[in-house]
Amino acid sequence: METSTSRKPFKLNYKRTLLIGFAFFGILLLWQVYDSWCPTFLSELFMKSFNISDEKQVQYLVGIMMAIDNVAALILLPIFGRLSDKTRTPIGKRMPYILVGTALCAITFPFIPVLFHLHDTVGVIVFMAVVVLFAMMYRNPAVALMPDITPKPLRSKANGLINIMGYIGGAFGTAIGIFFVLSEYLGKTLDKNGNYTWAYNNIWAIEIPFLLASVLMVISAIVLFFSVKENEIEAEMKEEMERGEEEAEVVDKVSEDKPISKANLTMLILILVAEFFWFMADNGIATFMGNYTIYFLGASTKKHMVNTIVGGVGSVIGFALGGIIASKIGRKWTLFGGLGLSFLSYLIWAVLTFGLKGLAGSGTFPIWIYGIWFIKGFGMSLVHVNSYPMVVELCPNSRIGRYTGYYYASSMAAQTITPIALGTLLLVPHLSWEYLPVYGGICLLIAGIVFFFVKNVKTTKTSFKVGLEALDNDE
Questions:
Q1: Are 314 and 373 in contact (CB under 8 A)?
Q2: Is 96 helix (H, G, I), strand (E, B) or coil?
Q3: What are the structural domain ranges in the chain?
Q4: What value does the mean pLDDT take over residues 311-329?
């Protein structure tokens, strides 16, 4: 009889996993450009529309507009997850959604800066919503593709690799922002009567980033389609997937024929609630960090882009190490440690912000923020690389799309609420941009408290190939 110790060790197909990561490459590229530019587009449009010179007075509107798009996504993500679970086509169950969603996003995305340049507030809002809706069509299936063909014990490592690919996509979006600087395009001035005016530069300064993002998204989808034969790989991996079910890190064994057990359901709910609060922190800060740079520090958006790259470097390191650390101490404590590091980064940011004078309107971007972003990036990558595998660990392979929908419903709910909450807080007297890290820290503290009660399940029977042997991808 074959025992768990005599079986052939699990090994991750690195080449195939990286190719699957091209789907995530396109996703994060889109969101990086979207989050870096759209909040400021909205701020400028609202200030002009209402003849307001104080950007704080419109941030609640920015938050609402950034959140409204996500309401539909909150509904659509689980729907597309379930649909793709049940879809059967010659090119797979996820691939049709990935290809169609990517194409529609690529077509509509470049219209956002054009409409901004034309001062069309309604048009910008409508096309932002359209882009988000099309993105939701392929986001769930694109993410579910990895666990479809990766055994459960390997999913943290695999998730790390596809997140690295995603952050490379995000880095492209960030690098674009270094060469095409939004704050220089705006060129806003006050005339002799104190009226707010725009001194626009060439429209291509804001159009090219969106066009490049669309082109790279299409290329990434094409690479994915021609390199990953979904149906063939699923058939090839069937035996390993079944063995992965046996060695899953769950309280009760998962079954295709039975509903989720009470213990596993409790674990799922705790993970999703904690996830909601860490996305409240992370997305809230990400949404307003560009405006923080422009309106509070008075610095160039180029500095913000560099800061994003620094955080991305920390994230990539965390993605590379997160699965390895989890294989040693378990996913729970790896994730919990990531929350602790991220909370520490916000605490340092808050202490230095309130302790140092002269930051507001200084025109400089403090170098210590780069260090904080590196720590935060590393910490949150440990969270993200392990949280999604923990959720899909609790379901059979036939329901991966559905549980991916649960995971993203939690994150999108947070991304719907947090821009409104943070933007509204900025309206409170005596609260200003200095309170961004305080907000983020409180949300992370709540996430840590909730996640602490997740049961730690660490298997000891799973064996992995290590060293150079692990890089052997021959089947």
A1: yes
A2: helix
A3: 14-458
A4: 88
